[in-house]
Model the fold of this input.
Amino acid sequence: MIGFIFKRFIQSFIVMFLVALLAFTMFNFLGDPVNQMVGIDTTAADREALRDRLGLNDPLLVQFGRFVSNAVQFEFGQSYQHKRAVSGLILDRLPATLELSMIAAIFTLVVGVPMGVYTGLHRDSLLSKIFMTISLVGVSLPTFLIGILLIFVFSVQLQWLPSFGRGEVIDFGFWSTGLLTATGWKAIIMPAVTLGLFQMTLIMRLVRSEMLEVLRSDYIKFARARGLASRAINFGHALKNTLVPVITIAGLQLGSLIAFAIITETVFQWPGMGLLFLQAIQVVDIPIMAAYLMLIAFFFVMINMIVDLLYYVVDPRLRVDATS
Amino acid sequence: MTLLKIDDLKVEFPGRHDTFVAVENIQLELEPGQIYGLVGESGAGKSTIGNAVIDLLEPPGRVAAGHIALDGTAIENLPYEKMRSIRGRRIGMIFQDPLTSLNPLYTVEYQLVETIQTHLKLSEVEAAARAIELLDQVGIPEPEVRVKHYPHQFSGGMRQRVVIALALCGEPELIIADEPTTALDVSIQAQILDLIRSLCKQRQVGMVIITHDMGVIADITDNVAVMYHGKIVEKGPTAKILSTPEHPYTKSLISAVPRADLRLNRFPMVDYIEGPEPTRSSFDVSTHWLGKARDFSASDGGALVRVESLSIKFVTQRSILPSRNKLFTAVDNVSFEIRDGETFGLVGESGSGKSTIARSIAGLYRPASGSIHFAGGNLTAIKDEKQLRPYRQQMQMIFQDPFSSLNSRMRVLDIVAEPIRFHKLASSRAEVVEIVEDLLEHVGLGRAAAKRFPHEFSGGQRQRISIARALATRPRFLICDEPTSALDVSIQAQILNLLKDLQDELGLTMLFISHDLPVIRQMCDRVAVMRHGKICEIAETEQLFEEPGHEYTRHLLDLMPKLENLSREGLDVADEDAARQSQ
Done:
């Protein structure tokens, strides 16, 4: 097991290194950063001085080394557009995105798993068929459309929920949260539902098909033959056996919730990293783009590691060391 | 009081168009402490009766008529919760496959305690103590330690003991065992049957054993009912049914059990169901396609296959450094020869390395050391895949599972034609079709089979397709890895007879792997007995059975179910053969 974790660490390291390489090449091949920073009336000498100051005249390898060592210290330089440290900008925006993703993920699991279990157990009931139809809608409608529809119904027509922003935010210095105020909660409902709907239907369908599979297995039949209660069979024995594939998918989905919050954040003007990233693209603000890329890659790698470790918790067959 | 009384039971599965009647007119009575056997071939409806008693019929199956009474009270068609209080508490059930009967994610203790607490009013601590007690009673050593283990940490036989312990949790009066030993080795089977027998006597539990194995029936049942096509054709005390069967199906079924005591020329057929053997045209090798290019050069000293100090190792636990990988030695320094034209048997329990040897001869595994010589060439020394092809063409394999060994998306024509096309044995497409149809006819399937898909065929027919595919390269050496263990005894007889006929006609050499000693005795000229990756003994078949040299061979022979009192009546032709053989 320790060997396994060690291997995963090395793999993660390689992934991060490659992403860093990719992020670094953006600086050199996506236009000249100096042109982005100065006006057209700057003299060639001033430009050259700026290049020197920014270290852009150093050999590529040296520049890359500097980039990596800065990245490790969570230091990505100055934003061309905002003229502020990128790390500070990201730290400002990170809580909003993480909160949104977490609430969306919780919504996904809390609604998706029970719906999957229900449709797996009662595959022919009317409610199951309704769930399956809704899930089809959830899979096929694009995120922005769902967001706009929600805004139209709940903000414009019913006027229950705000159509943009985070609501009131309480600031702890390093972290700003909207989860402690009523307006904050109101503001997060629609973006979270929009963001999580697709993943929810995916989880639901996955749990359903896994449940159908497990319910056919011999050990479930044997559990019935032993006279165990339906609750114990369905939730104790069947559901736990569906968890391994569900954990895999849910973990990957959490990563993409964070990474692809961009569209939802745009629709709802949610002040998160996605919005920051989108604005950065418009003005070719490369330090922000590079930092965003690195950060998302880091999240994915971490989530994957955690998922792999969760396998060990769920499935005793993987704990080879414990074998007698 | 009669423990279980089944009266005129009828179970049906309503379908969209018509209703399938699984069993009908079933009458059965069982007293406490008795073991009742239900025997028959697959599809006879044995398991349906067991599932009906415990009310676990697969939907949409239902009890359409008749009564099931447990201790005098009717239990058929009870509401779910009411039936649930009977399941496990009054009726226990044991399933066939111990590897899949236990939930892999929970410890044995969790599963036992959960079941005990469902049925008996015991505290957690008392239930845990009871769990250990039960494991002890079913013969699991160190129950205090083992109870904390997960199912995958137990061997097959031990898992079946755990399954039995689970069935005993609610102290039931009746246990239904559905093929309880089919998935187990013969030595484990003997232990489990012993355990079942003693539990029945000690606890005065009534038991219904569902099996296809006459050996199991003869070994432990008091009464037996023979089932055929959803009906009981004959029932009565086991000794009487086995020694003087009256119904032609029973006679036929009993006579088809391969004999361990005598070698016959052919396997007796269950002619009651199957009718006479399917007609297959025999052919003249000198003119037939299969006979072409058969002027094989003489092999070294009459040996077609020579295996020299072969060892095969598998990595069980990978390490970062290849030198620190943990290895499992599946085959350990094994040497033997297969002579040209003989059938060489490999026998042993599961995990003894039989199949591993077969696969390494076929080139599916790379040996760790040692060499394999075939038809004069050293296969282990040839590194170039292209140079191996002529050797590969001469050896073909037939696998155990007829369902997974054929690609279900390909037509039979393409399945059989694939090796012909690969080895470029035919010049035109029309010729390929002609050869395939001819082969299918020879294995007794008929030409029309070529256009169909594998799922349209039964297990026995699929095995015939596998044989046709193996013949398609014009091989001289067939590796048969448990070719009939997944088949019913009547189908087994057909397939083995077919193999014997083909061998006679084509002069094939065969490596025949089986765990079934009677089948080995009927099929093989010489036998190697394997245990833990080593060969214990190689001997002529007759000598091995009459005067086993190695202790382990004697042990295996002792474990064979004793069938001396089986009727061999209705076996006139075979008896004559036997008489001729024994002279």
Residues 569-583 of chain B have pLDDT under 50 and may be disordered. The two ends of chain B are 54 Å apart (CA to CA). The CA atoms of residues 245 and 251 of chain B lie 6 Å apart. Chain B touches chain A through 36 residues (CB under 8 Å).
